[in-house]
């Protein structure tokens, strides 16, 4: 007990210190972010852009699809260019051509162009950026290209198709002009030296662009070496501690199923519909993923059918990424509502009504956000509609602000329902009370930290939008949801008798300490190149390396649990539940650990941010870890919601293996090779080249896209088998449920 209490104190201290450091660095980002000039003017006084246009251009880009339509500073989708890198390259070429016409010496021109584009001419007093008349001419040439591209110029129809864009993406001429101001500013910040810095831009010389002298900084290289050393040392230390530690006596697995006599209460029964919706949303996400992937070959069609007329790439990708979060989160939320009465042994008054109300509220949010997002994209309703109701244009957090507020209220209501159901178990002294407390605390953080989605507004600086967005995506999804799910899994194993309660109690707190120690400040590895100070690179590199350390043992622990369980006859009923958790351990090690660390060090991310290396890591980690965890939790809950003889387990075997094998094929036959090929292009010529049609639509890349088809087919077959299992269970589930008492926690 004393050891566990010490662990809780350490957990509290680490959370306070880590969030304090993260908050302090956020303040530094706010102070040292690239300034938005009041005007961009020539040395002769002609105004090119205004600060209002730059801010309006940011809104216009986000309303047009934003991070679902290419990237800025590397964050977003991969078919269209990174607009900051693309503008930078085009402007450098245009300026070189103009200067060469004046001075017919390419070597001298190259040096002068590099010096001119790196020179910081921002004036603090006037708030203006001054450029030469020749550079102003180059800027206007590039701007005319983008105003035509985001309009309906027939000469750029082929390029729009290659970028998976539709005609008239931004129908308003003023919005297109403002868009060019934003793209210019994002590239200006990427090339212009920071004040009092030599050869170091606001984005730490990202993207790689030899024409303007953007090469990897010394700090990025040095901190990458430090992160690798820390990773090796951390893994060695953990393995050493694990090997020399006192191994507690293993739990004696019961001779019969401890949960066989559990009775589902009315609120527990009410969670059944959540799980069937989970499978429906999963099928929708897969369908949208197939369409989105195909747009990399046919930018506006699906096997010749002009699908983009009704479902453009921006919409299909938005639904694909957003619904993925929805179904995984729904599975975890429903699991919490199911296990709470099971653990406490009591059903709070009106709990079923609350579970039903929350379900329909979530349905309204999911359908409402998808429909209004589609309408906003199809009808070009403008920046205000996009921000409040439509598509905010931010990856994984794209729903309009109204839907975010409603979801936040729904999550707080979920925490309330979970807390009132767990309260009897929290008051009662027991060996599992620490685990139950961890479930409730992490659930409270899930509800509370979603408030970070409300921190940015329409005029917030792009660097700060990215800072807060990753608080949500990294800390909310990869942090507190993972702690919540890990605690729930520990409780499941404890109740099944696979793990001793005292051991699980200490282990979950210790694992949470190790995970959050690296995970909280590891958030910063997403922010290396988003206009942040170099301290972000140092802290992000160190702590993102430490994130990988605890993942080295997860796969081993999961495999050991399965080996202990497979010889117990009654555990056959939970075979696919436990194997799903084993798969989580595998993908945690491979997807989150191996593929994650492959891109996390600054020296790696400098070249591969915004390429398919990120997509390989994202698919393996998001579905492999969080998706399989959601499926495992769902199967466990369904085990207790329907009589054992009603389950068509013969469909779960092909579902499990097809999902995991298909995911592996998708990642290692298509996404990872595509990312490596793009990385070669990025290293040799620059990011603009890796994201150019010359590479994206090369025979190599299009072949790799088609090589994704076998994996997609196998993966889709797994989801169909899972759906068949659910339909069989739903049809047979008209029968009575078990009628014995709830097991006391």
Brief summary:
It contains 27 helices and six strands.
Helix-strand makeup class: mainly alpha
The strand order across the widest sheet is: 2-1-6-5
State mean pLDDT (0 to 100 scale).
91
- Radius of gyration (CA) equals 27 Å
User: How many helical stretches?
Assistant: 27
**Helical coverage, percent range:** 55-70%
Q: Outline the low-pLDDT stretches.
A: 736-745
Major β-sheet annotation = 4 strands, mixed
Q: Give the DSSP E fraction (strand runs of 2 or more residues).
A: under 5%
Distance between the termini: 19 Å
3D shape: globular
Number of strands: 6
InterPro entries: Cyt_c_oxase-like_su1_sf, Cyt_C_Oxase_1, NorB_cytochrome_c-like
Organism: Piscinibacter gummiphilus
Transmembrane segments: 7-27, 220-241, 274-297, 325-345, 357-376, 402-423, 435-453, 473-496, 508-529, 535-556, 576-599, 619-642, 654-680, 713-730
Keywords: Membrane, Transmembrane, Transmembrane helix
Task: Give a structural overview.
- This is Nitric-oxide reductase large subunit.
- Residues 37-208 form the Nitric oxide reductase subunit B cytochrome c-like domain.
- InterPro entries: Cyt_c_oxase-like_su1_sf, Cyt_C_Oxase_1, NorB_cytochrome_c-like.
- The chain has 27 helices and six strands.
- With 745 residues, the chain is mostly helical.
- The two termini are 19 Å apart.
- The strands form two sheets. Strands 2-1-6-5 form a four-stranded mixed beta sheet.
